[in-house]
Amino acid sequence: MGFSPSKSIPSVTKELNGKEHVVNSSIQKKGDFTVLVIQEVTPRLVLRSGNAVVGLENSGFGKVHAADGSTVSRQVERVEKTESN
């Protein structure tokens, strides 16, 4: 999520079963923005800054299932290359 460099960055948690849990996040500078990078995909996030609270819901979470190491696109093919010495 991008923020103006002059604005404070909110804390971020995930909401599971009515409780908030810490998520890993980091701050990066991208062009004219300060970017909050959230290291997890989850159905619900909560952003807090002072007394302000915003809830974000990912309505697409869990709708597409793919096996580990796979993809949902039939146009993508995984090719493993061997290292030649």
TrEMBL record:
Q: Which InterPro entries match?
A: VirB9/CagX/TrbG_C_sf
Protein name in the entry: VirB9
